[in-house]
Write a structure and sequence with these properties.
Number of helices: 9
Oligomer: single chain
Shape: elongated
Order of helices and strands: HHEEHHHEEEHHEEEEHEEH
Distance between the termini: 65 Å
Number of domains: 2
Structural class: alpha+beta
CATH architecture of the largest domain: 2-Layer Sandwich
Length: about 300
């Protein structure tokens, strides 16, 4: 960022060339650039944007053009959330504090669920007038999402622990998955019947009879009829697979992707069914997300095996 600042044409902005900057601005820019803690700042009537290298992952795909841009353009997607906070700092001179604030950043090309703990502090010019603000921030997205997923797994395990018969296990699965509506807006558990047909055993977050929750999965229907013996199968365009509005779960937007995992019982060569999970539209389906879904399917598999052995 220091190199980019040296090469940037500041004379084309309302801040003018760096030689004309007030000493207070030069000082705070130096502090930001030399810090290993993620920081960004805004200065001047148009709140020109500065940040350091540690903050670049938060900027994401915008990194090539944010320097010197208006802050309300840089953070256009979250300005309704942060704009009033910045205005308060500039007008009152009082710092703000937010812990684990949910912000939908478009740093990867889509609105992403992220969480941040940060403070906005006022910055004064050489005459003591407030001319900008400084943000010191820690992103806590992975911690918040990780704790949420761990709580879901723990709750599901707790419900399954007291279930014995298969019907009790299926009810516990539905109740546990109903509570996972942030990471799994809807889910469907299909099990093979005596005629080797995949029949809906339980659904969560979705009404019975919905086009996405047929009683039986048939060839050419909403969901693939042939499920893998291991691994997972992605459905990347749910709007093409299901011609009806899909449940949103906790969010204000329906899932665009779903993943299908086989339910495998130890001692049987073929899966006994499959778990279909609609995915959070505001999270990337990465390795951590897959591991979480895989653990859910694993808990379901073990509990079903136990129930069948018990019966």
């Amino acid at each position: 960022m220091a190199s980019m600042m040296r090469d940037f044409d500041w004379a084309s902005t309302d801040l003018g060339p760096p030689g004309s900057w007030p000493q207070s601005l030069k000082t705070v820019v130096r502090i930001v650039l030399t810090s290993r803690y993620a920081m960004w700042m805004a200065w001047g009537p148009n709140l020109r944007f500065f940040c350091n290298d540690a903050y670049l992952p938060t900027v994401g795909i915008k990194r090539d053009w944010v320097l010197g841009s208006r802050s309300d353009k840089v953070w256009e997607e979250i300005w309704p959330d942060i704009g009033p906070r910045i205005e308060r700092v500039l007008s009152t001179g009082e710092a703000t504090w937010d812990e684990g604030l949910l912000l939908f950043l478009e740093r990867l090309g889509f609105p992403e669920e992220t969480y941040h703990t940060f403070s906005y502090s006022p910055l004064a010019d050489d005459d003591g007038r407030i001319s900008g603000m400084l943000c010191v921030v820690t992103e806590v997205t992975e911690r918040v999402v990780g704790e949420r997923r761990l709580a879901t797994l723990s709750e599901l395990a707790g419900r399954l622990a007291s279930a014995r018969a298969e019907s009790e296990v299926l009810d516990a699965i539905k109740e546990g998955m109903d509570a996972a509506d942030k990471d799994v807006p809807f889910s469907l558990l299909y099990l093979y019947d005596d005629q080797a047909a995949l029949r809906l055993a339980r659904g969560s977050g979705i009404e019975s009879g919905h086009p996405a929750s047929p009683a039986v999965i048939l060839p050419g229907g909403s969901w693939p009829h042939d499920i893998p013996d291991s691994g997972s199968l992605m459905v990347n365009d749910l709007s093409a697979a299901v011609e009806a509005p899909l449940p949103r779960g906790f969010w204000d937007k329906s899932p665009t992707q779903a993943v299908i995992l086989p339910i495998v019982v130890k001692g049987q060569e073929k899966p006994v069914g499959c778990l279909i999970c609609g995915l959070n539209p505001y999270r990337k389906y990465d390795e951590g997300y897959f591991s979480f879904i895989e653990l859910l399917a694993g808990q379901i598999s073990v509990s079903l095996a136990g129930a069948r052995a018990f019966e």
